[in-house]
Amino acid sequence: MIRTLIVDDERLARQEVKNIISSWDDLEIVGEAGNAEEALEQIDKLDPDLLLLDIQMPGKTGFELLDEIEGRAPAVIFITAYDEYALKAFDVNALDYLMKPVEEARLRDAVDKVKARLQKKREEEEKAPEAQGLLRPTDQVFLKDGEKCWFVELQNIRLFESEGNYVRVYFDDSRPLILKSLNALTERLSERDFFRASRKHIVNMKWIDKVETWFNGGLLVILKDGTKVEVSRRQSVKLKEMMAL
């Protein structure tokens, strides 16, 4: 059962969605909210698996709501009056969205995608229960840089790079800059998946292509996209142990 929270400032829009899914046996509507502030309270209280989320609402937008959710964000399906071209202006990717008025068939397809993703997460938790509380490779993280927003599976992020009080996130051809510290990220990432190479870098272990010896007993990590990352001497010892070099 997918625990679902509906977030939309229009009561009739919320009712429309509830009418569509009322007969579905794989969704449970655990709550609804009319704005971002109400939604934040509901998310903390109810811990939903899925948000059916409007974008444009009084006060904070749906994007701003996601930006405030600490840790792992629920799965999200946007339900919006924006047309496709307006959405592209936000550069939202890896994200399903439905146009208002909602078509049942489109919502059904979107929910089926969410079901498959949640099932994969549950299988990962069963294999590695000790990692509960940490972000998993298939978890989607929400990133916002100015007006651009992304929903990205963690496994597609190859590198985090510190830039002052910000972190540059590398995935696909994108390089958003987010207000976060590497130390804060380290607390949420599993060492099995992400390695703190130095004070400035965290690398995705599965993106490592080669490891070469470097100056002063350090190592040089070369990622699959050709990016080179220096590993501090202290962390080089740890990486050798992890990779049995």
Structure notes:
The chain has two domains: 2-127, Response regulator (Rossmann fold, 3-Layer(aba) Sandwich); 140-243, OB fold (Dihydrolipoamide Acetyltransferase, E2P) (Beta Barrel), CATH 2.40.50. Helix content is 31%, strand content 31%. The protein contains seven helices and 15 strands. A five-stranded parallel β-sheet has the order 2-1-3-4-5, with helices on both faces. α2 crosses α3 (62-68). The mean pLDDT is 87.
CATH homologous superfamily designation of the largest domain:
Response regulator
Number of domains: 2
Q: Just name the CATH architecture of the largest domain.
A: 3-Layer(aba) Sandwich
How would you describe the shape? Answer: elongated
Question: Helix- and strand-based class?
Answer: alpha/beta
Topology-level CATH name of the largest domain:
Rossmann fold
The radius of gyration computed from the alpha-carbon positions, rounded to a whole number of angstroms, is: 20 Å
Estimate the mean pLDDT confidence.
Answer: 87
Order of helices and strands: EHEHEHEHEHEEEEEHEEEEEH
Question: What's the number of extended β-strand segments?
Answer: 15
Question: What is the CATH domain class of the largest domain?
Answer: Alpha Beta
Relative helix content: 25-40%
Oligomer: single chain
Cα-to-Cα separation, first versus last residue: 45 Å
The largest pleated sheet is described as:
5 strands, parallel
Residue stretches low in confidence (pLDDT < 50, at least 5 long) are none
Helix count equals: 7
Q: Which strand-content bin applies to the residues? A: 25-35%
* Strands side by side in the biggest sheet: 2-1-3-4-5
